[in-house]
Amino acid sequence: MAKPKPGRPTDYTEALAEAICIRLAEGESLRAICREDAMPSKSTVMEWLLKHEDFRTKYAHARVLQADTHADEMLEIADDGSADYKLAGRDGDDIVIDHEHIARSKLRVETRRWLAEKLAPKKYGAKVAVEASGPDGGPIPYNATVDLSEATDEQLRAIAALKVKVA
């Protein structure tokens, strides 16, 4: 009977790929997953993403689901005020605000918001990108002309003020 190879797995398997994707979707980081001895290294996972289209697709879906998990966690963190106050004073009967805990909670929410925005920008992005293009979908010409015949006096003054600032 052949002994199992010691060390981290390097051969791609559907089961291992699925386990990674499930854990990502549940909010774990890839670094945390890959720290475990039973999991492949992060560089191996990156190689699998390049080589296996099915894994690449599942991985992308897992990352979007991870953004949803982070959004749920943000709500839980924001709603949990259980440690916002602590007992202090000589007798331990004074209640004071725990500013350190509140600041840490804010950091936890902000970090998850940033991750959610990066993982699913269409869903959690702060800004909606607006595309503008010139004729036939090309770039807008630098010296484009604009018809101002129907502009109001206020609009013309604003344009003139901008022109003075640029000059």
Describe the structure.
It is a single chain. This protein is mainly α and 167 residues long. Helices cover 56% and strands 5% of the residues. Strands 1-2 form a two-stranded antiparallel sheet. Helix 1 runs parallel beside helix 4 (53-79), helix 3 (42-51) crosses helix 4 (53-79) and helix 4 (53-79) packs antiparallel against helix 5. The protein is flat. The mean pLDDT is 86.
Q: Topology of this protein?
A:
Layout: H1 14-25, H2 30-35, H3 42-51, H4 53-79, E1 85-88, E2 94-97, H5 99-119, H6 121-124, H7 153-166
Antiparallel strand pairs: 1-2
Task: Offer a quick outline of the entry.
The chain is mainly α and 167 residues long. The chain has helices at residues 14-25, 30-35, 42-51, 53-79, 99-119, 121-124, 153-166, and strands at residues 85-88, 94-97.
Task: Give a quick set of tags describing it.
2 strands, 7 helices, two-stranded antiparallel sheet, 167 residues
Helix content: 55-70%
Low-confidence stretches: none
Radius of gyration: 27 Å
Major sheet description:
2 strands, antiparallel
- Report, as a whole number of angstroms, the end-to-end distance: 82 Å
Mean pLDDT: 86
N to C succession of SSEs:
HHHHEEHHH
The number of helical elements comes to 7
Main sheet strand line-up: 1-2
Q: How would you classify the helix and strand content by structural class?
A: mainly alpha
* Shape estimate: flat
Strand tally, please? 2
Question: What percentage of the residues does DSSP assign to strands (E)?
Answer: under 5%
